[in-house]
Write a structure and sequence with these properties.
- The chain has helices at 41-52, 55-59, 61-64, 77-105, 109-117, 123-151, 157-173, 175-204, 228-240, 247-250, 256-284, 293-297, 301-311, 313-330, 336-353, 359-384, 399-415, 421-434, 444-462.
- The chain has a domain at 38-358: Hydantoin permease (Orthogonal Bundle), CATH 1.10.4160.10.
- It has 19 helices and no strands.
- It is mainly α.
- It starts with 40 loop residues before the first helix and ends in a 10-residue tail after the last helix.
- It is a multi-pass membrane protein.
- Residues 1-29 are annotated as: Disordered.
């Protein structure tokens, strides 16, 4: 990777924590304070490994099988597993690419985008990121409450939401301490639980993963591979959802190699394990009992499933903490603890009001926004940077990079316009206008990533102006 020197008016991020910080081994409170480099490869591996094992991976198994609007599962379990593995490995590599700039510069993810788009233009992806992270944080509290109700055989949903929201908020106050806590205690318990459920599911006896019908009382599994890349994009979108916040954590990494290896390797490995387990659970579900049912009916299932429910809070914690850092790109001197408490309260209220109905459409929209943005970032940061990337408050606007991002976004929508009716109808009309018909082999994620990267390189070659250094 080419060397990139950041001139941001504060390259002290590799130095000691600023005086006045409550803990020299904890995350700074504002953007004015440098980031301590205290997270080892194993700290980060534990963090990303736990994020890979999500209750969303179990409940999202249905999404990976590419259901039709009528509920028919077009892919077989075997095809779904292959699509999930391919999508997760590709998503893991993209996540690793997003992790490196944070480790190299010590800057949070949205602040890094000042170098890509300019200080003011970085507000556009920042606002989008705030919106999507609030959505993810809300969905996490919803899925925790639903899983807890199944685990405890009912109970008031609002109580589980409040408990999950409170735990999430507490974790965000000490983010680096929470990461180290995951390594020491939670990761071991999660790994043991995964092994236990695999053993129990194999003992139960899995059905033929390539044939109809599906679980008793549910929709049959299909044998059609024509929607393979749509399923792959659905799996990849889960990994991509972490891309716009990766640098928020890897800025504390002791090295770039540790940041890339942990983000790409540990996350992909555990997400594959969790998704396969979720697909097995879907195959074993009976009488429409839902994907969580098989976890609770095996020997000691409730005990080990409780581990999954409890550690799901690290997902909502990561979303809330990164939302706070994203807001700091707009308001750099606001204490992240104040922001975290307010955001924790907000997602708790939203979780009490909303449901999981639009999960698949939500994933598609996230992928269409951030996959091409990563393509632009990777091309400009790794392939085209000429020694200077200004991430200061005076970073000049780079409209060309916005244009490259929009090109990639349009490619994604033309191939996969999603499931939101009015949005999908608009892009379907555009397809007709352009006489364009998406083919089964087309991956919206891969083609939009590559198109955006190529557009960024081309626009960069046409724009010969040197980056403007920050004001001293």
């Amino acid at each position: 990777m080419p060397s990139v020197t950041l001139e941001n008016g504060d390259d002290s991020s590799r130095g000691p924590v600023a005086p006045g910080s409550p803990d020299p081994h904890e995350a700074p409170l504002t953007l004015d304070e440098p980031a301590p480099r205290v997270l080892s490869f194993w700290d980060q591996s534990a963090f990303w490994a736990n994020l890979g094992v999500s209750l969303f991976a179990f409940s999202g198994a249905y999404t990976v099988l590419a259901p039709d609007l009528d509920g028919t599962l077009r892919l077989s379990i075997a095809a779904g597993i292959v699509a999930m593995i391919v999508g997760t490995l590709l998503g893991g590599l993209m996540l690793g690419l997003a992790a490196v700039p944070g480790a190299r510069t010590g800057r949070p993810a949205m602040v890094l985008l000042r170098g890509l788009f300019g200080a003011r233009l970085s507000y556009v992806p920042t606002v989008l990121n705030i919106a999507q992270l609030i959505g993810w944080g809300t969905f996490e509290l919803i899925v925790i409450s639903e899983a807890a109700r199944e685990l405890f055989g009912g109970g008031p949903r609002w109580l589980f939401v409040l408990v999950a929201g409170a735990l999430t908020t507490v974790l965000t106050i000490w983010p680096l301490g929470s990461v180290r806590l995951l390594r020491r205690f939670v990761t071991v318990a999660v790994m043991i639980s995964l092994v236990w459920f695999y053993i129990q599911f194999f003992r139960e006896g899995l059905p033929d993963l390539t044939a109809n019908p599906g679980p008793s009382g549910g929709a049959p599994f299909g044998t059609d591979w024509s929607m393979f890349w749509i399923a792959t994009d659905a799996a990849l979108a889960v990994s991509i959802s972490w891309v716009p916040l990766a640098a928020d954590y890897t800025r504390h990494s002791r090295s770039e190699k540790a940041a890339f290896g942990a983000a790409s390797g540990a996350y992909a490995l555990t997400q594959i394990i969790a998704y396969v387990l979720g697909l097995f659970a879907l195959a074993l579900a009976i009488d429409g009992g839902g994907v969580y049912q098989p976890f609770l009916t095996v020997t000691l299932g409730a005990v080990f499933f409780f581990v999954f429910v409890l550690r799901e809070a690290d997902q909502s914690f990561a979303n809330v903490y990164s939302t706070a850092l994203s807001i700091q790109n707009l308001l750099p001197r606001v204490d992240r603890r104040v922001l975290s408490i307010g955001l924790g309260a907000l997602i708790t209220v939203l979780a009490l009001m909303l449901n999981m109905g639009n999960y698949a459409g939500f994933l598609s929209l996230i992928g269409s926004v951030f996959v091409p943005m990563l393509g632009v970032l990777a091309a400009d940061f790794f392939l085209r940077a000429r020694g200077v990337w200004n991430t200061g408050s005076d970073a000049p606007s780079r409209w060309g990079m916005i244009g490259a991002w929009l090109v990639g976004f349009a490619v994604y929508q033309l191939i996969n316009p999603g499931t939101v009716s009015w949005w999908s109808a608009f892009w379907t009309d555009v397809q007709t206008l352009l006489h364009f018909t998406p083919q089964p082999w087309m991956s919206a994620s891969l083609l939009s990533f590559l198109t955006a990267a190529l557009a960024a390189l081309l626009i960069g070659r046409l724009d010969r102006s040197e980056p403007v250094p920050p004001k001293s």
